[in-house]
Amino acid sequence: MSTEAQQESTPTARCPFSIQDGHRTILETGTVGAHELFGVKQWLVAAAEDVKLVTNDPRFSSAAPSGILGDRRPGWFSGMDSPEHNRYRQKIARDFTLRAARKQEEFIVRAADSCLDDIEASGPGTDLVPGYAKRLASLAIHDLYGLNEEGPVLEGQMRAMEGGTDMESIKRLTDEFGHVLALVRAKRDEAGDRLLHRLAESGEDEILLSDEEATGVFATLLFAGHDSMQQMVGYSLYALLSHPEQRAALRENPDLIDGAVEELLRFLPLNQLGVPRVCVEDVELHGQTISAGDNVIPLYSTANRDPGVFADPDTFDITRKPEHNFAFGYGIHGCPGQHLARVLIKVATVRLFERFPDVRLAGDVPMNEGLGLFSPAELRVTWGAE
C-alpha cells in the first residue's frame, strides 16, 4: 500500500522536535508513501527495516539517474555504487576516523572558547546560531580541510549556490565549481597534511585523483556535511535548553555526555529526506510495487522514531541506552564525518553550559526548513540575573 505524503512548509503549530505528520503516517501504517519533489515522483520509506533495505540492497542504486540531481561528475561519490564509490571513500578514510576526530578535539575546544569569549564580551544576550553553532562548526571544518583565508570565501560562494527552489537550480550545483577546482589545483603545490592537501596530492599515493575527481570529492563533502553539521550543533543546544530536566541530569552526571550526544542525534529530526535511490528492478514492498526506474527516498529521522527499534521513541531521554541510529544515514553512504559531528556536539554543549551555567532561552525559536533539513533559524539566549 502507499500513502500520500504532502510537501510541508513549517507550520507554526508543529512541535520543533516532532517528525512531519505525513512521514509519521507512513511509519505508523507500515506503508510506502508517495511524494513529489521538483515534479518527480518519489516513494518514501519510513520504518527502520525499510530504510536499511533501500540503503543497503543493490536493487536500489545511488548511481542510476534520479531525474533530480545533475549529470554525474567525477568524484561525486554520493552518486555512485560499489565498487566505484569505495575508491573515493578509501581516499578520505584516514581523515574521518574516530581517532582523527579525537585528535581534532583539542582544536575544537579552543575554537569553542574563542567563540564564547566573544559572546561573553558582547552579552548578555546573543543568537547562538550564527555566533556559536555555525561559527564553531565552520572553524572545525576549515581546520579539517586545511583552509585558511579561503574558508570563509568558499563558504560564502557555497551559500550563494544553495537554496534552490526548482530542479534546474539544484542541477546547477554540480556545474558551478570552478572556484573549487582552482583551489584544488593550488593545493597541489602547497605543503600540508590536511584533507584537501591529500585529495590534491600528486606524489606517491595508492589512490591518485585527477583535479576533477578531487574537486568532486571535496564538493560532495561540502554539500553533504557542512550545513547539516552547523544546524545539528544549534539544534542540540536548543534541545537541551528546552528540556531542563535533561540538562540537569547531564550537569549532575557529566559522564552521560556521550550517551546524550547519541540521543540528540536520534531524537532531533534534522535530516528529514535522504538522498534518493533509484530502483533498478521491480521490488514488492508492503503490497506496493516499486518499479524499475522509480525513485525511493529513505526517511532517516522518521526511522529514528520507529517504536519497533526504540522504546518510547518520541521521548528525549539522555539516559537511554544508545542504539544504532540513522542520523548519519545507513550502509555504504553513511556520513563520513559522523565522528567529527559527535565531537562538535559534545564540545559545543559542554563548553556552553560550563561557561554559562544559567544560560536560557530568550524568546521564541523560529524553525528553518530547507531541502530536507529542519532546525532553528535563530536561537536567542541570555544569562545572568533575570
Automatic annotation (TrEMBL):
<protein>
    <submittedName>
        <fullName>Cytochrome P450</fullName>
    </submittedName>
</protein>
<keyword id="KW-0408">Iron</keyword>
<keyword id="KW-0503">Monooxygenase</keyword>
<dbReference type="InterPro" id="IPR002397">
    <property type="entry name" value="Cyt_P450_B"/>
</dbReference>
<dbReference type="InterPro" id="IPR001128">
    <property type="entry name" value="Cyt_P450"/>
</dbReference>
<dbReference type="GO" id="GO:0004497">
    <property type="term" value="F:monooxygenase activity"/>
</dbReference>
<keyword id="KW-0479">Metal-binding</keyword>
<keyword id="KW-0560">Oxidoreductase</keyword>
<dbReference type="GO" id="GO:0020037">
    <property type="term" value="F:heme binding"/>
</dbReference>
<dbReference type="InterPro" id="IPR036396">
    <property type="entry name" value="Cyt_P450_sf"/>
</dbReference>
<dbReference type="GO" id="GO:0016705">
    <property type="term" value="F:oxidoreductase activity, acting on paired donors, with incorporation or reduction of molecular oxygen"/>
</dbReference>
<comment type="similarity">
    <text>Belongs to the cytochrome P450 family.</text>
</comment>
<dbReference type="Pfam" id="PF00067">
    <property type="entry name" value="p450"/>
</dbReference>
<dbReference type="GO" id="GO:0005506">
    <property type="term" value="F:iron ion binding"/>
</dbReference>
<dbReference type="InterPro" id="IPR017972">
    <property type="entry name" value="Cyt_P450_CS"/>
</dbReference>
<keyword id="KW-0349">Heme</keyword>
